Amino acid sequence: MNDSWRAMRPVAAILVCASLMLTLSLGLRQSLGLFMQPMTRDIAISVSEFTFAIAIQNLAWGLAQPFTGALVVRAGFRTVMVAGGVLYALGLACLAMAQGVLTVTLGAGVLIGLALACNASSIANSVASRAVPAAVRSTVLGLVSAAGSLGAMLAAPIGQWLQTSLGWRAGVLGFLALALVLIPAGWIAGRVDRLKLPPASGGEADGESNARRVAMAALRHPPFVVMTLAFFVCGMQLVFLTTHLPSYLALCGMDPMLSAQALGMIGGFNILGSLFFGWAGGRWSKTALLGVLYITRSLVLAWFFAAPPTPGNTLLFAGLMGFLWMGVSPLFAGAVAEMFGLRWQAMIQGIAFFSHQMGSFLGAFGGGMVFDAFGSYDLAWRFGVGLGLTAGIVQIGFALMRPPPPAMAH
Q1: Contacts for 318 with CB less than 8 Å, ≥ 6 apart
Q2: 132 near 12, Cβ under 8 Å?
Q3: In this model, does residue 360 exceed pLDDT 60?
Q4: Domain segments of the chain: what residues?
């Protein structure tokens, strides 16, 4: 184990910049809900039209993720990640100049969605997995995910302060300045392209592999299919919260700063949760832990939305959800690496992530439609809790069955 940790020293810059890329891409994206109320009033669009843009973002992210995952095998991580940084900056610039639903959808939706497919969880986790020995991979994935959780703690307060002081467009421009850091971070993290994979990890021995064969093998493997379907529910719950929690708290008469504090609290406790589940995934079944996480998260959601919010229970809820938020990331990435190796990890995670983003689409847009139709979020959160409990139970059941690994795992 000590030798494995010492082997990480030459790749420290890669891991730091992959973490920075992840924290900015997710932190900015998770904080866009702060602008929903002032933006919808200013440019005369509805809540459902704003949430449609966020839904399109998740759809574009999910659709593009398998392709960017396959592209890194041929073009390299650096090319993909730097392109993602440029797209992110363009998306925020478009959003800052928005005058209607079309430009909001293009900026916050299409461009940022494509950018996330190039520099968010699937790509960052694949970079980290490739850079470190298998003995410490789960713990390192937890560390990268933990570092990736700092973004909301930084972005949400900055965005809220700029918006309160200078207007929502100034808040978006502040996000744009932060997004420019993605470009050099992706360039430095792209040094991972120089590292040679061992054959047992899906390297040279997989030279005859092609994307279609690998994808079909993954989709024929029942544990992966179950993980992928459960990932749909994960995306639905999390994006419902990041998109609608600020609006829900405003409707309940809470101080506007409470939304930023809650999103920041989620980001802070993300760190603890990512570290814990990264550590736990190195000791127990990653797929069983995923099931436990989904069930616990659903119970916390039910507790919070069943009663009117207060500042105290909102921050407690945010802390609990933060702990359970990105713990999924090291568990899922580690499980995919164990099942299928490293060469095509980004693409296979991308296939599963498409399911996650279909859930995200439903969580963002469906939540907005429910609110516009009924004037409350009651039906939306009850639906999310029910699906979350079901997904967690099924995930644990398959984990306990201990099926054999797929034939093409390495």
Answers
A1: 261, 262, 263, 265, 266, 269
A2: no
A3: yes
A4: 8-192+208-400
In 3-state terms, what secondary structure has residue 44?
A: coil
Question: Could you tell me the two tokens for 162?
Answer: 């700029």
pLDDT the model gives residue 345: 74
State the chain's mean pLDDT as an integer. Answer: 79
Residue 374 has pLDDT above 60, yes or no: yes
Note the CATH number of domain 8-192+208-400: 1.20.1250.20
66-91 pLDDT, tens digit per residue, is 888 888 888 888 999 999 999 999 99
Token output for 10: 């030459």
Phi first, then psi: give them for residue 76, nearest 5 degrees: 95, 155
- The three-state secondary structure class of 384 is helix
Average pLDDT over every residue of 149-176? 79
Residues in the chain: 410
CA distance 228 to 233: 9
Residue keyed to tokens 């810059």: 13
Cα separation, 148 vs 124, in Å, equals: 9
> Cα dist. 262→9, 21, 28, 270 in Å?
36, 22, 15, 12
Both tokens assigned to 248: 């829900």
